[in-house]
């Protein structure tokens, strides 16, 4: 007998105990009054944004330093405490492990400071060549100026692998300072939120996210700065300033091209909301305004290189398709499961003698843990065209839904799924790309129980998948303790707010399996911690394989969950976060 699959989108489950409001914030509203976008609200003439601003509470009447500086946010004492404590922790991490990305960025400082712009994308003095878009190169150029004042050897092109205290302190400080772009955007999300206390928790969770601590402040990158630009763009979209949202996203694309995976959601949303009338007619003036603004951004970025005839060289640096399907450490996505399946089939062929064709060049390829082309032994090989076609096909399904329901909440969910789809099915995906999923998904975490459950599974699996980036003993303890503390502080209060008891046998079973999976990270961590000592240099890639495959199971399931929630939601109204309940 055919049975319908369980509906993963949440249903109404009766009354829920209202959350206890935090001191200094307005009481929580009933779920049917909650909304995720701006209803008809007064226009704020100072910045041209439309938004919901509650009257100042007893702790909000005092002008803050940020207000006096004209930055338009009211910073409460707890938020200053978060900034102070997090900054102190990041300062203490200055001597921590640094990946090769640290030398990559030091070399980019040297390239942009020592060479004329015409040679930036041609220099090969170091193997760490410049392969980010021009805005990031300009960003490095600006940072190279104070670097030269502090220590001229930092920007010496031939001073490879320079690791004095001056360069360590300077580069780590720039990560902390530029991350304030993220903090400022997160503070601006609070005004206009129907539940400021919950939005403060979500904003704090993003500013303190273990992903940023691991990838930026230890491993070393500038993700906080660039995700800050993304959040500013999303904030503009939430507040109805869609033109500014589109311009900021164009700026972001010219800082790091990985965000192009989110471009389909922006294209559909801006076209439907900004360039078309409610009746579906194209608004030519708005369309040309948006097009010209985006073109201007790209001209400022790549214009100088186009005039010098360097576009082919620039594109070859930005899109190196000579790399393989998987990174050295398999990003826990769909291809990690396919690669693991190929390993299992290869073992079965060897033990059972099944008459299956085996590609000898693929026998060692997928398990060696090196950067290079991935060749399967039993399963047919995957080419870049295959990953592109699958990614595009899945994205089109979500874009059709966004076209039909172009609300802010629909846009935010579709944007998350764009990043998620590229992570699941993209070519040569890095494990750090999971932030493309976790950052926008965090903004949906408190919508309802279904969104939170998806966020919970994706966060646990996604954060744990970053653990192999830090493999030294000291940092191993830091990443574990910090992530556990973050999870308790952030996940527990959100769950209390949105929790719903499973209301059908299918959901009871589903809930049980998800709990078992989450609990499985405890034995997984014990195994991958002990294995290197037990095996020595033998099968040294096995702990990474186990981590990748186990995390991939959760991330694939969370992707399916979020896809079903989005596609089966009858109405993603911009005026009700309870629309899918």
Give me a quick take on this structure.
The chain is mainly α and 581 residues long. It is 58% helix and 1% strand.
Structural overview:
- With about 575 residues, this protein is mostly helical.
- The protein has a domain at about 90-175.
- The protein is about 60% helix and about 0% strand.
- It is built from 22 helices and two strands.
- The protein has helices at about 65-70, 75-90, 100-115, 135-150, 165-180, 180-190, 195-205, 210-220, 225-240, 240-255, 265-275, 285-305, 310-320, 335-350, 385-405, 410-425, 435-440, 450-465, 475-500, 505-520, 520-535, 540-570; strands at about 45, 50.
- The chain has a two-stranded antiparallel ribbon with strand order 1-2.
- α7 (about 195-205) runs antiparallel to α19 (about 475-500) and α10 (about 240-255) runs antiparallel to α11 (about 265-275).
- The two termini are about 30 Å apart.
- Mean pLDDT is about 85; it is low at about 1-5, about 10-65 and about 575-580.
Structural class: mainly alpha
Largest sheet properties: 2 strands, antiparallel
* Nearest-integer average pLDDT: 85
Strand order of the largest sheet: 1-2
Shape: globular
Individual helix count: 22
DSSP helix fraction: 55-70%
Strand tally, please? 2
In what range is the share of β-strand residues?
Answer: under 5%
Distance N terminus to C terminus? 29 Å
The stretches of 5 or more residues where confidence is low (pLDDT under 50) are 1-6, 8-64, 574-581
Q: How would you spell out the order of helices and strands?
A: EEHHHHHHHHHHHHHHHHHHHHHH
Question: Gyration radius, to the nearest Å?
Answer: 24 Å
Pfam families: Alg6_Alg8
EC number: 2.4.1.-
Membrane topology: Multi-pass membrane protein
Protein name: Alpha-1,3-glucosyltransferase
